[in-house]
Structure formats: structure tokens, C-alpha cells
Amino acid sequence: MNTPDHCQQKLVWDVPTRLFHWLNAACVLALMAIGLVILNAGALDVSNDGKVALKTLHVWIGYVFALNLMMRIVWAFVGGHYARWRQILPGGAGYLSALRDYLAAFAAGRSEPWLGHNPAGRLAIGVLLILLTMQAVTGLVLAGTDLFYPPLGAWIAQSIAAPGVDPSTLVPYATALYDAEAYARMRELREPVVNLHVWGFYLLLAMSLLHMIAVVVTEIREGGNLVSAMITGRKTLRGQPRDAESDATDREPG
To answer: Which of 75, 175, 203, 242 could form a disulfide with 79 if both were Cys (CB 3.0 to 4.6 A apart)?
Structure first.
């Protein structure tokens, strides 16, 4: 039997989950940095050529980000125990009770270790996944309206090209090549997507900061080497984790 001071180490995060986490973090940081420059291009006196270069880099990193997110979504169906949807999203039998117990223990300063994500962490991950997906989808739409990049770029170029202009020759800011009315309609339809993308950026920034703070606070109060575990895959916990029983009945594949 484990005592409160007993430490145990267990492989929790599989390799694909760890790769997704760090690649996603790198992409989000890069996209946020470039996005801030794009948002402030006027104040920074960035030329049109400079904006096109920044947007091009932003889009290519965005493709990596979106592909990485798609692979994580697939892995949530076929990956190891702690990579599955039922372990990373809020909900399921007993979730609300577990969330109340966890929050009560946290407020009282008691440690309640979990091998996988704790109930509060699963709630945060649900919000993060919604925001990440929204940024990926809106970003792909804007890639088509700004730079005529896939998956929608060819269709958008065809819809706004001026009569007699080959849509494949359209480039950003070349308004002489555009049909003025069609371009205005496209920009009008694009506006709510831009707003979603920008507000999603601010919400994702806030959630990312909250996530980092929560990781630091949880590691200090409960142990569990959360940061290094996402590198090695192994968690070290004091005491019996709440999710140990389900772990014993649901092994990782292979």
C-alpha cells in the first residue's frame, strides 16, 4: 500500500503526445509573435512587401500547426490510455464529483495526485482545443483571402479576378487585377473571420498564460514533475493517484 510520502514513477505520456505538445507550443509562440507584428504593421511602418513576407511565414507555420493539431485529434482515438478523449476532455461518469473533490482539496491545500490530467486540467484542455481548432480553421480561411493559399485560395482568386485576368496570377495588394465589386464582397465576408481570428488570438494568449501558471502552481503544491514528464513521459507522484484504478484496466496499445 502506498503511503502519503511514497513516491512512484510511471510512464504516462506517450511519444506522439509529447511531440504534439512541444511542437504545438513552438508553433503557437511563433504564430503569436508574428501575428503581433502583423497586427501592428501600420504603427511599425511595415511595407506591403514586408507584410506579405510576414503573412507568408505566418501561413507556413500555420500549416504545421494545423497538421500537428489534426494528428493529435486522430491520436485521441487510437493513442495510449492518457492520450484518449475520455482522459483529456471534461465529462463522463463521475467527472463533476471528481472536479468538486479536486477543487476542494486544492483550496484546502491538500495534494490530490493524478497520473493523467486532473479534472480542472481537463476543463482547461477542452477550452484550449476549441481555441486551437478555431485558430486553425479561421487561419486557413484567411490564408486564402490574404495570399490565395490552399485550401481556399484558388477558389477565392477565381471569384475576385477581374475579367480577362488569369486567377493564378493574382498576388496580394495587386488591386488592379481584382474585380472591385467581387473583392469588396469578399472582404465583407472575410471581416467576421478576421474578428474571430483576432479575438481567438487574445483568448488563446490568456489561456496559454493561465496554463503555464497552473502547471507551475500544481507542480509546486502537488509535485508530479509536470514539465519534465512531458519530456520524458514519466510522472513521479507522492501518494496514490485518483485515476490509478482506471489505468489498471485500460493499458496502452502495443
So the answer is: 75
